[in-house]
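Protein modeling request. Please complete all fields; requests missing the sequence field cannot be processed.
Requester role: graduate student
Desired output: 3D structure, token encoding
Chains: 1
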Amino acid sequence: MKVRDVMSRDVQVARPNDTLREVAGRMRAGDFGFMPVADGDRLLGTVTDRDIVVRGLAEGVGPDATVDGCMTRDAKCVRADDDLKAALDSMGGSQIRRLPVLDKDDRLVGVVSLGDLSTRVKERYAGEALEEISR
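Delivered output (135 residues):
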């Protein structure tokens, strides 16, 4: 099974000049805490609700600051045609729950999450990844 078989394709994307307030509001409305940050379809990084709080608000940055100041720039990612094992290994090794997915031309095409894996593949694999992530 490949990453493209389980990834979410309908992904909310933040732009580097979006404000923390805008992105946090979209996260609240969509009930998620992670967004890739992109310029067009080119991945620049990722931002999480935790990034907004810890790298933004806790550092004294106001809600009208832009996402580019608190995003993770060198985000781990996987390829759409990678085997699921590669995604699981990357998640477990880096202790992360979500990965942006790129196509062969480095365009952002989706996100794969531990939730995607747990509902779409054998429970054993998702369980192993969760154990690694939780360490």
